[in-house]
Amino acid sequence: MDPVPGLDLSLPPFDLLDDAGRRRLQASVDIGFHPGGTTLIEAGKASPHVFVILKGLVHAFQVDDRGREERFADYGPGDVIGAWAVMAGRARLSYRSDGDCLSHLIPAEVFRQLLADNPAVAAYFHEGLATKGRLSSGAERSESAELMVIRVGEAGLAPPERVDADTSIAEASARLRERHVDCLLVYDPAHDAPGIVTRTDLLEALTRQRLPLDAPIGPLASRPLVSIGTGEVLFQALIDMTEREIERVVVTEGSRIAGTLGMAEVLAHFASHSHLISLGLARARDIDAIADAASGMTRLVRSLNVNGTRIPYMMELVSALNSRIMGRIFELVVPAELHDRVCLLVMGSEGRREQLLKTDQDNALVLADGLDWPGLAAAMERFSAALAKVGYPPCPGRVMVDNPHWRMAASEWRDRIGQWKRVHGGQGALDLSIALDARPVAGNAALFAPVKDALMALGDDEILLHHLAAATLEFATPLTFFGRVRSGGAGTDIKKGGIFPVVHGLRCLALRHGITATNSRERCAALVECGELSPALGRDLPQALNVFQHMRLDAQFAALAEGRQADNHIDPSRLRRLDRELMRDALHVVKDFRAHVRQSFHLRD
Question: I need a surface site. Which of 57, 254, 414, 585 has the fewest CB within 10 A?
């Protein structure tokens, strides 16, 4: 099949066409000449063609309320423009040639038919940054990719076997064997909702508690039930089981219990290395064993990334495993009798559940008021050293539990928060930003509740919020005046220019609106719900974060493969055309969001 002259059909999105689509494109495409200053597409109007630029430069622009033109982006050879104008019937932007240009012209009706006949191409154009990001990975559909789309209701659910609380252990064991299930739902008049008893619970009741066979199973039932809806993706069940250290969840469909789902059923769809890590952590009895189990984390992330796993699912699973690792170390270094008197917090990307590869330690400790623990300092030094041994390097800013500044009694935390309210800027503002992402992962989580309440109360102080939000504008969006990605000698620092402005801006807006979530995507959804963010911006921000995280992760793995240290820099010159387009689109989302934050908090650049 001869290629269309000058049109590379091996590049996205044309590489997604089937043979019939390629033949249709060959038969219909034409070449157009556009003298300098020609308006190819006018905002608000339909376009008779989709343009694939062959030679020259095209500017996209919009006109503001005062009639002034605002340059949006530049498009050069290989770029596709006008697709939205054809699909939606009207263009969002105007496009004008800068000097003489040549382009391939795809008739609108032909383009629409190509979309209708090729769902992958339609997804590329219709579903925005998130879908284009998945397509750019080049990964074929794999077992882990299947796990991203299979719903819990489609998995092999076990039927919900119900028994009364006065059922004996012997009767319950017989029911498990007869029904070929691993758990029973236990109904007790003393409780509004059922509990659950597993085969392991019955075994431990007989062997460890030495209960008789005729003992009732009611006291053995675990409550409340851990449940997941039939419409959730199967990967979410894997995350929930990993995080809660359980082997089975109850599946609900509305108010009805549809069945139960075990790790075995999940693994029937996906041979997950994460489960091997979880087993290793559960069996670990010393720091060396924990380090050995955790050594597979980077391999797990690399495998998930190569197989096309969506970034949010990867981060949630990694977060669940990290919490397990830190929890196991906490159990080893903190005496059991003190577990209820202390609470371990994680902060930063780990606090937001947005970490992929292991990064610096960011943690703190809340102590019960009046706790007298002479061995506190030594225990926290052991804890930080153990984390370093497992692979989490010390934080350069010393945001760690072995630093007395980050381990305090609950009342001392409230006093510190009061200081942050009175003194704006400087180290206090940095400490506050870090603390706003804190979440408990081990010990007594109830100790953190009053600290969290005191943090959220700061949202009523507009002066404090003004100073705190100013950091959103501290790092310029790395785009040139003409909408291209700006890159320094080391590449583009995507954390400073892309991730931080979004994460911090959402953090400040969430604090103002009393949103307790720490995850950026959850904050974003809540801000849309309360009317602070438009639905469009609420959709684009999480997708932009996905793009940044995905590209940073690819760059980090490339650095590790070349023997370099992984960091936050991306070299735009090493990106494929689609990836550069994604980064540019995502950075424009950041630019729009920074403008929203500037206006919302009355900031100046």
Answer: 254
Contacts of 440 (CB under 8 A, 6+ apart): 343, 344, 345, 366, 447, 448
Q: What are phi and psi of 415, to 5 degrees?
A: -65, -40
Strands 407-409 and 363-367: parallel
**DSSP states along 394-408:** PPTT--STTSGGGEE
Coil/strand/helix, residue 359 = coil
Amino acid identity, position 9: L
Tens-digit pLDDT profile for residues 447-504: 999 999 999 999 999 999 999 999 999 888 776 644 556 666 677 889 998 999 999 9
Q: Where are the alpha helices (DSSP H) in 476-519?
A: 494, 500-512
Burial label for 228, CB within 10 Å (0-12, 13-18, 19+), is buried
Q: Supply φ then ψ for residue 565, to 5 degrees.
A: -80, 135
What the block records as the tokens of 217 is 């199973």
CA 525 vs. chain centroid, Å, equals 13
Task: Please provide residue 17's backbone torsions phi and psi, each rounded to the nearest 5 degrees.
Answer: -70, 145
Q: What is the dihedral of CA 571, 573, 574, 579, to 10 degrees?
A: 90
Nearest of 34, 16, 37, 36 to residue 25 by alpha carbon: 16
| Residue range 137-149: mean pLDDT, rounded | 44
Range of weakest confidence among 133-142, 279-288, 538-547: 133-142
- Is residue 370 exposed (0-12), middle (13-18) or buried (19+ Cβ within 10 Å)? exposed
Count CA within 13 A, CB hemisphere, residue 363.
Answer: 27
Q: Could you tell me how far CA 376 lies from the centroid of its own chain?
A: 34
H/E element, 570: strand 569-570
Q: What contacts 184, CB < 8 A, 6 or more positions away?
A: 161, 162, 163, 167, 172, 175, 176, 196, 197, 217
By 3-state DSSP, what share of the chain in percent is helix, strand and coil, each rounded to 5? 50, 20, 30
Q: Sheet of 195-198: strands edge to edge?
A: 162-164, 183-187, 195-198
Q: Strand pairing of 183-187 and 195-198?
A: antiparallel
- Give me the torsion for CA of 76, 80, 83, 84, rounded to 10°: -50
